[in-house]
Description:
This protein is an all-alpha fold. The longest helix has 24 residues, at 2-25. The chain is built from 4 helices and no strands. The chain starts with a helix and ends in a 15-residue tail after the last helix.
Amino acid sequence: MRDLIRWNFHASVWLSILGAIRVIQDANLVLSDTEDLSDPLKNNLLFIAAYLGLSQLVLWFLRYSRDGFFEALLMGGQFLLLAGGLQIYAWVNDLPLQNPPLIAIFYVGISHCLYPLARSRGKAGKRVK
């Protein structure tokens, strides 16, 4: 089970990196009708996608490859907040929101939050390698 959680986490990290690249290329993936979207709103979306993608890439090489469980939990919280924040943002600004990217963001957040469960524990609660 722990290996499945680890594999799922690694897949979700790369999904978030590739998803960020794709959103930067085409903002219509998240917001369906961006013709009415003003430049500041579009720039906010692109900035958030770039920030999350870049932070995932940096964390992949610096922390996740060395079992950075705490960082994964923090990033999971950020992705879950983003999923909820996007819904509120779209509702307040009366913007049409695509469901597949929202589901993907929620999946990435849950995968990151479950990753610390992959840590092996011994009888006394100490970490076993």
